[in-house]
Amino acid sequence: MIHRSWMRSQGFGSDVFDGRPVIGIATSASELAPCNVHLTRVAEAVKRGVWQAGGFPLAFPTMATGETLMRPTAMLYRNLMAMEVEELIRANPLDGVVLLSGCDKTTPAMLMGAASVDLPAVMVTGGPMLNGKFRGADVGSGTHVWKFEEELKAGRMSQEECFFAEGCMARSNGHCMTMGTASTMACLAEALGMQLPGSATWPAVDARRFETAQAAGQRIVAMVEEQLRPSSILTREAFENAIRVNAAIGGSTNAIIHLLALAGRVGVPLQMSDFDALGRDVPTLVNLMPSGKFLMEDFCYAGGLPVVVRRLAEAGLLHPGTVTVTGKSLADNVSDAQCWNDEVITPVTEPFQPTGSGTAVLTGNLAPDGAVIKQSAASPDLLTHTGPALVFDTAEDYHRVADDPDLDVTADTVLVIRGAGPKGYPGMPEVANVPLPAKLLKNGVTDLVRICDGRMSGTGYGTVVLHVSPESAAGGPLALVRTGDRITLDTPGRSLTLHVSDEELVARRAAWSAPESPYVSGYTWLYTHHVTQANQGADFDFLHGSRGPGVPRDSH
Fold this sequence. Notes:
Belongs to the IlvD/Edd family. The chain is of the alpha/beta class. Helices cover 35% and strands 13% of the residues. α2 (39-52) crosses α8 (207-226).
């Protein structure tokens, strides 16, 4: 009686307490996260669907880890959001949950939290922005930020032009409309089977985005009745499908971190090397920025992810029988998918980029536990390169001298940025694709090999080696590199080599000491003490495995 009476203070009639499924709607709407701000309206559409299907919808807020404003990086708080989502679902009397996400880290955080509870759950991502338009051409939010910054540094664009352009890149609600991390994770949620087919790509302001949300509200009620849980969907085969789809769409390298973390939550064995092994025979089919020229609106109208999935399945590159939130198999969901623009979504036989052009995983004495490079966004002539290192302990150290005309740097230089890993920054920020030195840009140099233990925005591009593991702050070999050391990047050979003798490295290690952490309390202290390395998903070591819905001690 006491619980019902408090709920009735909101105006609910007694008939909603008749035993119907209680559906939580977890929304990360926040004005501090522009990509997620419209999710309040999306939640209303979900509610319509839940009511229609005979459920009782109750929306509740979660934090929003927006990459746009959070400092030092939203990645620092992905695990905190996952913990919050998990505990909110477990603590409240819910039978199922709809997850509303948008910006980069909100999608994996919500999936991680829901997987750890293992109640029936369906993801609804908020959708991409409309295509950016500047001077009669399409521009991509995120991707063109880096391009315009380079143009400004090179003196080919004025500050006033940049001010005008920034309003052209982000002209509607939604997340980045390039194949950045937000778009990638929306597509991978669909490929995993956790999102309704075709729903990853509808623009945020398209009416069909809200139709999709309403359909998700209807479907979650049936999932409760069927007891279709994430543990039945997130299988090893589903993760293999997601890895191959990521290769086919030219997806973000950040997907590796998030899929590794999610797999850890459901106890599925997954390693960084799987991304290389499974992606080598997959061509890039989707011609989208930053690797190509189109944007998410174009991808949507060309047929969206169902076309990619159907083409990969018909080529024998996917496990077609994996279960999805529809209750049907992945292949059944896309059996009638049609492509309306083969330039945007190319056929497998005539791909946008050939097999093996996706993300490569490197190992070697500079990255014993692995590093990654997005080949489709790199300069082909730099994928095999040897040059002298120019080392900076922090990205900020580099930025302070990047415009110095006397900086000792050439087109052969290998920029090394360290101190950007999970523990070192902390939070593993997207600082790896630092802009090129101004003196090189003015001389027409457009790319440089960069190596970092941090991440790169999915909207970024360039020959950038990321996620070097172990990181420098944890004593990885990156901590021992000195300016002038020669480094070889051999992407075809999948190796990253520091040309320094083992004896010299032993001597350098003896003289090295771990940086002292300034954090003695609070969440950041917890993070730095318990976060795993990039090759393990940068999740907390105490959150591996599903804990289930639990049984409250006071169940009356």
